[in-house]
Amino acid sequence: MRLSTCIMGMLCIPALASAQPAVPSDDAGGASAPVTESPAPPPSPAPVPAPSAMSALPPNATACERERALIVDTAAANSDVEARRQLLAKLRDCSQPIATMAEPQPVVVHEHRGLVGEIAGGFGTMSTESSGYGSSNDQSGLSLAAGAGLFASPQIELGGRLAGVMYSAGDNTGYNGFLGPYLRFWATPQFAVGGGVGLGLSTATCESCETFTSLGWDARVSYAFAPDGHGAQLGLEITHNSIDLSEYMIEDQIDILSISLQLGYAAF
User: Which of 62, 82, 187, 216 has CA 20 to 30 A from 165's CA?
Assistant: First the structure.
């Protein structure tokens, strides 16, 4: 039933009906039919991501296996087919041992400082010349040298040295050389030059032989095989001494020049 309100018999305003919705009538019998709503479809489940190769690794996986898993995961996330192929080409066979480079050993550097000691031996020749008689004589023998000192600076070495040549004369053994202070300058960590002025020695083992001393000098060049100068060294050394026979009422002086090639060892 529809209700309406008329104002002054001229304007009619339909009244509000009940809040119930209108039900369409049935064409056949005119009776109303209830309206049913279809239920909403259930939401589709979210896709479950495939487990990554890294997450599937055991706790004790090797570095090679971890590297392989990382490459596989990176390739799987890459949509570029060519880039994926290049990544998979980097996979290594973890069953093969990997050659590793040995760790470099620390280099021990012996600086030119502190005390220094050296010893050397080699081959030497002697040339003797008499100023009174004008005669000369050459001999060869064993070169022996030893020294000890200290570094005043990384390039300046100071010390004392005995160097000369030992020779045989029949049943006797003689020695001519130098004993005294020396200075050696290291121009580089491996190359040095040096020398000194001191006591010249000339002696022999015969019963009637005497030991003669005079002013002597020494000069040498050295090359160290080690980059820091420590260890084996090759040297060329020259010594000079003389014998003055004036005290024997002989107006003669014998000059002795020795040249030696030595291989030695220096520790500092």
Answer: 187
Q: Which two tokens stand for residue 127?
A: 């040339």
Q: What is the pLDDT of residue 32?
A: 53
Query: What pLDDT does 83 receive?
Result: 77
> Can you spell out the DSSP letters for the chain?
---EEEETTTEEEEPP--SSPP-PBPTTT--B----PPPPPPPPPPPPPPPPTTTTS-TT--HHHHHHHHHHHHHHH---HHHHHHHHTT---TTSPPP-PPPPPPPPP--S-EEEEEEEEEEEEEEEEETTT--EEEEEEEEEEEEEEEESSSSEEEEEEEEEEEEEETTEEEEEEEEEEEEEEESSSSEEEEEEEEEEEEEESSTT---EEEEEEEEEEEEESSTTS-EEEEEEEEEEEEEE-GGGT---EEEEEEEEEEEEEEE-
CATH 3.40.50.2300 fits 114-267, yes or no: no
Write down the domain spans for the chain. 114-267
What is residue 149's predicted lDDT score, i.e. its pLDDT?
95
Burial annotation 91-101 (CB, 10 A radius, 16+ → b, else e):
eeeeeeeeeee
The reported pLDDT for the residue numbered 9 is 45
Q: What is the pLDDT of residue 209?
A: 81
